[in-house]
């Protein structure tokens, strides 16, 4: 078991969110969309040149910026 | 006694469709989060049994994270105090878990709740089955299953409104997602399904190496379809109508009035070799009707048809992700393509749609940039009409110049405008096949808006221009400003009238260039200056409302200054 940021995952990899490294505002926004510790997450793709990351949580596909994604730590 | 219903739920779950079904009020619904940015109000019934219905912008939680969400939360806060309001919580059955997170928050707010479990057919279709009765027992509030787009379940929804009651479900806030998980485990069964061909194709549109080429192709196809439909309607329908049916009628009126009278000048305009030229005569009933109905409307229809297909399929948010990096160059994130796209139709809804961007800085950049460098479809149609006959040589310089302006001005804004620009953070909705009747209704609403808001301006504009000419005001202004524009932009004195009228309606202004026998170079310069210089009066009003006086003045100054600069440069280069 290793803990890596969302940005380091390969497309298609699954994992479990373990930590959100951010202020209250960022955590609240991520949490409202379902990205919260304990959630099972699948990375669908990342864009080139540090573009947005696309993940799936439950039935929702979410696009989030690279900086935001680097603050989401996932256990894979 | 229920007096008011708030339709609340996550973004993109079909609140606006349910709203339309309930009230008969037509509102724009699309397949991306954030279509409804301002609340919309309608009602059911009348007299004492009248119930107001409010279509609240979508929100993921009742702790607001964006301006649209703030609107939603403040509406809810006010409603809790009134005691005669209920919430109809619209829940996406294909995405129960995330939706219930908001539902549980609503249930804690001492306000009666009724749940509409929407997209019920689609959930079944993709193998999700939900025990709605069990869910109703767990949550303690009534649940109605609905398929808003076809109207299924709406009657039952109305009949059960009075059964709405405050939630009795107890939980600890910090444990909310766990609670949601437990509920979902009890009521929902998902049959495992393999990826369908559609989903595989869908994934291709968002992977960088396949997605970008697909995006380029999709946009080119869209452009050519708009051109094809627009041109097609003009050459097969509107032009024959005006030439063969309208012209003889107008000629009769012309004879009645006598070609020298002032009334003739205003109503019919000028005759060319004894006949009406709809592009140039400039009477209220000739050019005044031809510009909006003959030349612009076909393109408006074509554009909104193509745009609505893009919107309803769910492609726009994917395009936003693909183009995110490109938009960072101008200080915005990917979702800014939504207002930019809308601005290509008309800058007014474009400026309003900037509310899906989170900060003031982003909204200023987006609104100013689109007023500066994105011509609306009415103007584009007239530019095509005027420069189309020169082909690529005439059209390309205009659009390349505008794109360059967009890029350079955007870069400068990014450097100079203070404030924050957050990253993209959006849900990517599932692809949906557009529902044709709903789509056409939306196209019609947008056309209606054009007919209602724009056509009167064109008619008044033509009337006004004729008066100004008759009193010699335009020639007076031409003599004052003319020498300057002649030197700086190489434009004749007569073009001043068009540049001034640009403030009223840009399509009309471009139309006024037609009788001046301008060279290609002059036409290109005039079209670029008209696009950049000043927002039309409708855009001006919406900029004022959305940006406030100070920022609007800043934006207007930027527009005028850069129009002079670019006009002058083009005069030197071309």
Written description of the protein model:
The complex is a heterodimer of chains A (76) and B (574). In chain A, 17% of the residues lie in helices and 41% in strands. The relative contact order of chain A is 0.34. By secondary structure, chain A is of the alpha+beta class. Chain A has a six-stranded antiparallel beta sheet. Chain A is built from two helices and six strands; from the N terminus they run ββαβββαβ. Chain B is of the alpha/beta class and 574 residues long. Chain B has two domains: 187 residues, Rossmann fold, CATH 3.40.50.300; 352 residues, no CATH class. In chain B, α3 crosses α7, α14 packs antiparallel against α15 and α15 runs parallel beside α24. At the A-B interface, α1, β3, β5 and α2 of A face α3, α12 and β11 of B.
Task: Map the helices and strands.
The complex is a heterodimer of chains A (76) and B (574).
Chain A: E1 3-5, E2 14-20, H1 24-32, E3 40-46, E4 53-57, E5 60-64, H2 66-69, E6 72-75
Antiparallel strand pairs in A: 1-6, 2-3, 2-6, 3-4, 4-5
Chain B: E1 4-9, H1 15-23, E2 40-44, E3 51-55, H2 67-82, E4 85-92, H3 96-107, E5 113-118, H4 120-125, E6 128-130, H5 132-139, E7 143-145, H6 154-159, H7 176-187, E8 188-190, H8 197-204, H9 208-257, H10 262-267, E9 271-272, E10 275-276, H11 287-313, H12 315-322, H13 324-328, H14 337-345, H15 347-353, H16 360-373, H17 377-387, H18 392-416, E11 425-428, H19 436-470, H20 473-489, H21 495-501, H22 506-512, H23 520-533, H24 537-547, H25 549-573
Parallel strand pairs in B: 1-3, 1-4, 4-5, 5-7
Antiparallel strand pairs in B: 2-3, 6-8, 9-10
What is the share of helical residues of chain A? Answer: 10-25%
Low-pLDDT stretches of chain B are: none
pLDDT average of chain A, as an integer? 93
Shape of chain A: globular
Number of strands of chain A: 6
Number of domains of chain B: 2
For this structure, the CATH topology of chain A is: SH3 type barrels
Low-confidence stretches of chain A: none
Distance between the terminal alpha carbons of chain B, to the nearest Å? Answer: 71 Å
């Amino acid at each position: 078991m290793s803990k890596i940021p969302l940005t380091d995952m390969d497309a298609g990899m699954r994992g479990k969110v373990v930590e959100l490294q951010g202020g209250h505002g960022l955590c609240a926004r991520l949490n409202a969309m379902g990205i919260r510790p304990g959630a099972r997450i699948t990375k669908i793709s990342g864009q080139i040149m540090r573009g947005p990351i696309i993940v799936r949580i439950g039935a929702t596909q979410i696009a989030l910026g690279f900086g935001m994604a680097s603050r989401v730590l996932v256990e894979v | 006694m229920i007096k008011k219903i708030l339709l609340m739920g996550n973004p993109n779950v079909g609140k606006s469709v349910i709203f339309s079904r309930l009230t008969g009020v037509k509102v724009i619904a699309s397949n991306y989060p954030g279509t409804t940015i301002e609340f919309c109000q309608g009602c059911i019934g009348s007299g004492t049994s009248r119930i107001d219905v409010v279509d609240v912008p979508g929100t993921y939680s009742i702790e607001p994270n964006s301006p649209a969400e703030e609107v939603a939360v403040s509406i809810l806060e006010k409603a809790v105090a009134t005691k005669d309001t209920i919430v109809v919580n619209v829940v996406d059955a294909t995405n129960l878990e995330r939706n219930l997170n908001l539902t549980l928050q609503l249930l804690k707010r001492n306000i009666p709740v009724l749940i509409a479990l929407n997209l019920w057919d689609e959930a079944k279709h993709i193998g999700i089955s939900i025990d709605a009765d069990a869910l109703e027992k767990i949550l303690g509030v009534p649940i109605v299953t609905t398929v808003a787009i076809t109207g299924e379940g709406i009657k039952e929804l109305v009949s059960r409104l009075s059964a709405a009651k405050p939630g009795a479900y107890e939980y600890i806030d910090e444990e909310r997602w766990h609670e949601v998980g437990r509920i979902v485990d009890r009521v929902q069964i998902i049959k495992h399904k393999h990826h369908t061909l559609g989903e595989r194709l869908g994934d291709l549109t968002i992977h960088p190496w396949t997605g970008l080429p697909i995006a380029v192709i999709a946009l080119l196809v869209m452009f050519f379809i708009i051109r094809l439909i627009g041109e097609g309607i003009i050459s097969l329908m509107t032009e024959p109508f005006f030439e063969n049916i309208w012209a003889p009628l107008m000629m009769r009126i012309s004879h009645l009035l006598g070609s020298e009278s002032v009334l003739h000048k205003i109503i019919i305009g000028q005759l060319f070799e004894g006949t009406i030229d709809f592009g140039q005569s400039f009477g209220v009933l000739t050019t005044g009707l031809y510009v909006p109905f003959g030349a612009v409307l076909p393109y408006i229809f074509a554009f909104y048809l193509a745009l609505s297909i893009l919107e309803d399929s769910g492609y726009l948010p994917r395009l936003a992700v693909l183009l995110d990096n490109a938009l960072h160059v101008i200080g915005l994130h990917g979702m800014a393509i939504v207002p930019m796209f809308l601005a290509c139709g008309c800058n007014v809804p474009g400026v309003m749609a900037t509310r899906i961007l989170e900060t003031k800085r982003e909204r200023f950049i987006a609104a100013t940039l689109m007023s500066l460098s994105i011509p609306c479809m009415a103007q584009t149609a007239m530019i095509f009409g005027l420069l189309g006959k020169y082909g690529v040589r005439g059209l390309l310089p205009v659009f390349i110049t505008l794109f360059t302006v967009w890029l350079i001005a955007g870069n400068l804004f990014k450097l100079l405008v203070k404030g924050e620009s957050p990253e993209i953070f959006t849900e990517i909705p599932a692809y949906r096949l557009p529902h044709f009747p709903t789509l056409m209704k939306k196209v019609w609403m947008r056309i209606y808006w054009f007919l209602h808001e724009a056509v009167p301006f064109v008619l008044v504009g033509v009337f006004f221009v004729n008066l100004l000419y008759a009193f010699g005001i335009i020639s007076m202004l031409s003599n004052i400003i003319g020498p300057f524009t002649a030197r700086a932009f190489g434009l004749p004195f007569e073009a001043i009238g068009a540049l001034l009228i640009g403030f009223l309606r840009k399509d009309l202004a471009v139309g006024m260039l037609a009788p001046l026998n301008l060279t290609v170079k002059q036409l290109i310069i005039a079209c670029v200056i008209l696009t950049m210089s000043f927002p039309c009066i409708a855009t001006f009003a919406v900029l004022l409302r959305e940006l406030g006086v100070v920022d609007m003045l800043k934006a207007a100054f930027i527009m005028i200054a850069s129009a002079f600069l670019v006009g002058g440069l083009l005069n030197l280069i071309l």
